[in-house]
């Protein structure tokens, strides 16, 4: 096992947003009291506290046996993490069912996104204190430290785009990227941002679509994120998956994952994983649906009636978009350039 060094790469830039954009973000997202900042050349939006960690993310030491699950939020992240973790951990479904996914598959940049009181933060803080007595976890980052110290083989996950991670990432480890129809992604993200205390969105759906189309939601711009991955789709250490393909035929996509990861699962094991990764199992498991995990739900979530694992469907945007919103979104979709034309997104 080896790690990447990345000693020669520069830290991504951090720029403030125009004051009117900051005020609008603050008004709609109660947690973002200081607004958001634009990071890197594409201006990906993150909370200002990312300044403490962005250099660490850009120089994160990946190992050659890591698998990184990368997505724009609400594109099938939790689902794919669970599948990849099981495949790379000898189909240990008992541990998968009993141990919360964030403890098995660390979220690299969550220190830059969350606030004190996250459901697994107490456990991670205890581990951090044992490893680093006397050090300030707010400066080091308990989630980042958890990712760095996790035992191999690590299944890590991120919503950061390639440009904010080490330049040699794909030359070091495997990356699984999941893309989803942006209309469904937008709908799912709307409910997610209402639900999570890390955002506390209080506007309506039409206002959220407007913010989305103006690249004023957390982790935006969507097209910048997706295009950075699309450009790397032919790299041997990269696998591009579509959420819609996974929903349509999960056994087929699991075979693709198995071939890519080299895990050599039998047909019986792939069948077991298909059942384990079903929407009903994921929604009813406290290890993956944090809405039904009392400790994590209390720490992470508002009183919104939505669920962390919500519908798991495709085409749900049809029941949310008015003709006016669809027209607005179509204009935004033209800003996707070549990736919007070439990638086989459904319903565009």
UniProtKB/TrEMBL annotation:
Q: Where are the transmembrane segments?
A: none
Q: Which segment of the chain is annotated as a signal peptide?
A: none
Q: Which residues form the Sulfotransferase domain?
A: 64-331
Q: Does the keyword Acetylation apply?
A: no
One Gene Ontology molecular-function label: sulfotransferase activity
| Database matches in Pfam families | Sulfotransfer_1 (PF00685)
Which keywords, in A-to-Z order, does the entry hold?
Transferase
**Does the keyword Transferase belong to this entry?**
yes
Q: Which family does it belong to?
A: Belongs to the sulfotransferase 1 family.
Protein's recorded name: Sulfotransferase domain-containing protein
What is the source species? Petrolisthes cinctipes
